[in-house]
Task: structure prediction
Amino acid sequence: MAVRQNRGFWAIAATVALLGAMAAPASSAAGQDFRIPVGSKAPTAIAESLDGKPVDLGQWIGKEPILMEFWATWCPNCRQLEPQLLKLQEQYKGKVRFVGVAVSVNQSPALVKRYVEQHSLFGEQLYDRKGFVTDAYEVPATSYVVVIDAKGTVVYTGLGGRQDLAAAIAKAVK
Result:
């Protein structure tokens, strides 16, 4: 069921998936296939910047490696990933594009912008108001990470607060 068609259902499904991910063991460096298959071409979709301007993921996909995290300000697994992401963003600055896609469930661009500033997050921070990106990647829950190589191929997907993102990025930059 599409996010933009039934946000209440998605919120319940995301909560159930989030609770399951919290109880699950840490994912392996090989990644966990949830929705978009590893080896498939990454889809393009349009989200918006935190100031409301449209942003097309197609401007980056197939041109450079990308780590994309679907997150929310209220997500404990996302907070758990933050220190690792910040470290990796410094380590791979100029080599990997980091894209945060804030889901629109119980959020607003202003809330996301405030959180980004307070937590010193950098990289591209987008807001998925209409759920186009979430739908395109068939996102099961927040803390879902997709790593895409420079050819536009999905090389990793994972969910939860304990992911080996350094190993996932290594697959994209080899």
In short: The domain at 7-173 is CATH 3.40.30.10 (Glutaredoxin). Residues 7-23 form the longest helix (17 residues). Confidence is low (pLDDT under 50) at residues 1-34.
